Amino acid sequence: MEPKLRYSDEELEEFRVNVQEQRDQAYSDYKMLMEFVKNGGSNDTADTDLSFDIELDNVADHLSKQEAADAALKKLKLVRALDAALVRIRNKTYGIDVQTGELIPKGRLMLVPYAITCVR
């Protein structure tokens, strides 16, 4: 039996649904994180208090915003990788190992939908 060269249209549709769902979730997470980065923290009158506790809160808020910005960047990279996977699905090249030309196992693609290589 000759090796399979690509996934069937039905399988590609199953992958497309999975990738789209993961992409939508990642983008939603990205938007939420960016909203926190832009608008996080309190703007009440406590912001004008110069006490030590308020200064510590400001430092903690800054660190939280930095952590959120870092997480947002990771989510944006994931969104871009999933967008690229959707293009490969449309081109019917999804799931083909870029190094060997073999099919990436379906289980791997369901867990890591942006994968472009097999795990050896």
* Overall outline: elongated
Radius of gyration: 21 Å
How many β strands by DSSP?
A: 0
Mean pLDDT: 86
**How would you spell out the order of helices and strands?**
HHH
Count up the helices: 3
Strand fraction band?
A: under 5%
Question: What's the story with the biggest beta sheet?
Answer: none
Structural class: mainly alpha
Provide a quick synopsis of the model:
With 120 residues, the chain is mainly alpha-helical.
Description of the molecule:
The protein is an all-alpha fold and 120 residues long. The protein is 63% helix and 0% strand. It is built from three helices and no strands. It has helices at 9-39, 52-90, 106-111. Helix 1 runs antiparallel to helix 2. The longest helix has 39 residues, at 52-90. It is elongated. The two termini are 23 Å apart. The mean pLDDT is 86.
